Structure formats: C-alpha cells, structure tokens
Amino acid sequence: MKTLSQNTKAFTLLESMAALFVMGIVTTGVMVTISNCINSMTDMRLEQEAVKLARENMEYLLAESNVREYVESGVDEYNTNLSWEMGYEVKTFPDTDQQWVMAFSVVEYYNSENELESVELENWLAKLSMRESQQLEEQRQLEQEYLDQLSEEDAEYEAQQDESSEQSKADEQGKQDNDEDSSGSQQDSASGRGQSQSNFEDLKDEVNDMFGGQE
C-alpha cells in the first residue's frame, strides 16, 4: 500500500512583510484619492454657494432705485465660511475723464487648502453727468470733514484720558509720600521718647550712687 506524502510550504517572514508593505501602499493611495475627492466636492459646493450669493447681492443692487456710492459687507447667515461685500463705486476713465457708476459684488471663502478664493461680479450702470460728478465730489468732501472731526474728537478724548491718568498717579504718589513722612515722624518721636527715658534712668542711677556712697 502506497502512502501519499503532501509537501506543504508556508509563506516566509520576508514574503509576509513584502505583502503587508504592498497592501499599505495600495491602502494609502486609496485613502489619498478619497480625501482628494472629498476636498474637491467641498470646494465645488463652496464655489457654487459663493456664486449664488454674489448673484443674489448683485440682483439686490440692480433693483435699488436710489443709487449712491457706498460699500456694505457681512457674513452669510446660512454659511459662515462665506464673507461678502457689495456696493456702488464711481470710477473715472483716464482717457476721457468720464465717471461711471459701477455695481460690484464680491464673495470670499477659504478652500480645503486654506487658500483664499473669491467670486467677483461687476455691472456698469450709467455715466455721470457734470452736475452729478460735482454733487458726488461735494458729498465726498463732507464725509471727509466729518471723519476729520471724529478723529479730532477722539484725539481730544485720549488726551483727557491721559491727563486724568497722570493726575491720578500723581495723587497716589503724593499720598504714599505723606504716609512715609507720617511714619518717619512717628519713628522719630518714639526714638526721642526712648532716649529721654534712657537719660532719666542714667540720672537716677547716679543719684542713688551718690547717696549710697554718703551712707
């Protein structure tokens, strides 16, 4: 009767380590790919929301009946990652010296790589006449005068605060000096009383010695 012998051979330690290394590389590549896909989808969603918000702000500007030069900014109430800025701006063309009113809408956000991205929309509305340009320049001058007045008031307030602070420090220093003088006077008085008491004791001893010697 013949006996069949089976020659079984297992993986060596080197082969097992090589297999684990290859699996690790493959797994890392798959994870990196998945992460990149997720970041790309997140960036695309943010970009779509930014474009939508910029269009909504532009539609709001175009629907306004009173057009004036101003800038307004804020953060989206539905997505705090989006910050927006919109308004009207007057630009002058150097070649013709003509002024035009432009409506603009800007939305900014940070992508997955922490880089600042922005969506900008512009719409040229109308050309300003000479009278409108003069009114705009007068308005700018009034605003600048108001800002200068606020700056002067702030400077005067800061000066008053500094003066009050210095006066408080001077009063406190004077109080400390008075306390030190009072303490020094008390120490001198106590020292004088101690010296007088010592002199009286010495005189008393001398008198006792004199009468004791006579006896």
Automatic annotation (TrEMBL):
Question: Where are the stretches annotated Disordered?
Answer: 149-215
Q: Does the keyword Transmembrane apply?
A: yes
Q: Which UniProt keywords apply?
A: Membrane, Transmembrane, Transmembrane helix
Annotated coiled-coil segments of the chain: none
Q: What residues form the membrane-spanning segments?
A: 12-34
Basic and acidic residues bias (residue ranges): 166-177
What Pfam families does UniProt report for this protein, alphabetically? N_methyl
**Keyword Membrane annotated:** yes
Composition bias of kind Low complexity appears in: 183-198
Ranges annotated as biased composition (Acidic residues): 150-165
The record ties this protein, via NCBIfam families, to: IV_pilin_GFxxxE
Full protein name? Uncharacterized protein
What organism, scientifically named, is this protein from?
Answer: Sedimentisphaera cyanobacteriorum
